[in-house]
Request: fold
Amino acid sequence: MKRILIIGNAGSGKTTFAKALAEKTQLPLIHLDKLFWCGEWEHLSRDEFDTILQEELDKDEWIIDGNFGRTIPHRLKYCDTVFYFDLPTITCLWGSTVRVVKNYGKSRDDMGGNCPEYFDKQKVSLYKAIFFFNRKHRKRYRKLLEEQADKKIVIFKSRKQAYSYLNSLY
Reply:
């Protein structure tokens, strides 16, 4: 495990898991949100983001935390391990809500730029994306992962499974 992808719905626990895994493995942790966001809820262009992402993918070791579905097929070419958080929608909605409450008015350390957490129209868009995520993406993600015969694939159906996995390491 030297190049690890952590993917899944927003609010599923990817970032919390990534931080704990990075601490246990001492692998460098890259948050896609930190690469993508800049300024006040502004983001890089697609080309700028893809260039920076490629620079990270070319490194020998990493954990990449974040979904960014458009880039998953490309990132899969570089990884040796994938952790897919395939959690129930309600769990993800709850996780996202807790994150907003916990970080209200502040920008999280896994975000780039100045992107404070608020309940606003942007959050409504996120909730809609979370609500429809499994319906829109689960089959495609499962198919993509099934095609990765040369990679270690771990699918978590609950946060408890993810924590048990972490506890089993070293």
